[in-house]
Amino acid sequence: MDEVLFKKLQWRCRRGMKELDVLMQGYLNQMYRDAPAEEQQAFHALVEMPDPELYHYFIGKRTMENTQLSELIEKIRKAFNLV
């Protein structure tokens, strides 16, 4: 695991909303390192999304059209009991 990349992701997981901090940092610290490369790439895309948009996906107000991102969001939602 590239520690420099991991540190950058830790910084990017610090969001403007505490709820997103918990979800994004939680995934990064608990699941990211063991995730397949495709899932890690999907996570990289998630950290680039704006907070309001991410929040709507996580609370289930919107659905993601991208299958990989949608599956990752659902995985995170289930891991943190948002389903």
Count, helices: 5
Structural class category: mainly alpha
For this structure, what is the CATH class? Mainly Alpha
- Which range does the strand content fall in? under 5%
Sheet having the most strands: none
Task: Summarize this structure briefly.
With 83 residues, the chain is mainly alpha-helical.
Key terms:
globular, 83 residues, mainly alpha, DNA polymerase, domain 1, single chain
What does the model show?
This protein is mostly helical. It has a single domain, classed as Orthogonal Bundle (DNA polymerase, domain 1), CATH 1.10.150.250. 66% of the residues lie in helices and 0% in strands. The protein contains 5 helices and no strands. The chain has helices spanning 3-12, 18-30, 37-47, 51-58, 67-79.
